[in-house]
Design a protein that fits this description.
By secondary structure, the protein is mainly alpha-helical. The chain is built from 12 helices and no strands. It has one domain (3-296).
Length: 297
Amino acid sequence: MSKFKKALLQLHIFVFLAGLTGPLGFLIQLNGLVLVFYRMFITVFVLALIYIFTKKKSIYPTHTVLKLLGIGAIISLHWVCFYSSIKLANISIALVCFSCTSMFTSFIEPLVGNKKIKWADFFIGALSLLGILLIFHFDTKFRLGIMVGLLSALLASLFSVLNKGVIDTIDSFSIQFYEMLGGVLFLFFIILSTNGISHAHFAIPTQMDWFWLTILAVVCTVWSNHLMLSALKQISAFTLNVTLNMEPVYGILLAFILFKEQKQLGFSFYIGIAFIALSVIIQMFRIVKQNKLKTVH
């Protein structure tokens, strides 16, 4: 198997696991801020154990570590917005909003990399936005959840582009560890500054919450992020984020099966998701074509 094909396989496994995070977040009876804090805390703990037993030795300059910690803070905000969107609307709406990540990336990636905007990328991403606008216009009860979900997508685009800038010089384990640590420290500071450490604002998870949080941290964070970071060595951040548009498909199917969310959604939702699916199909055709051209030349 070529490195490119392996990267695509890793990417799609990562996307499937990402699709599980919505249903898991719905099952966990904690608010978005506390949920993400525990998720990242468990992740850091697991990564620290891996470090101890594998004796990984990677030393990086202070400015590099600080950059990774900063990206971790952005990731934590993305997750807080994502899970808050689930609580404000539902799993399906939060996952569909996440599809706008590719459109935001079409602007952010050129700006960060000092390159020209690829308008083809923008128009593909805009199909996702059109789908969101259809849902936003007709399903007014979900508007607040949609706005928080779109902020989540913007933050996701930002951290994926920033990750692309460090992936070639830093090993994936160190990226995960420092970013998750940065997220934990950032959220702990937020909780302290808002006097959130109380039973009312900083609830202790129930036994079932701990179970789902562990699955969320170990399977859907440690393992899936390793797959994503490995895939980024061979593909662009834009390709990553367009492929991530399949995340709503997996997550929504699970939401329909497990929580019967189809009863909450109107016809406009299905029209909107059709535009999102179209953007994924077009981009995947472009990826395959571009890869064939590279192989020929």
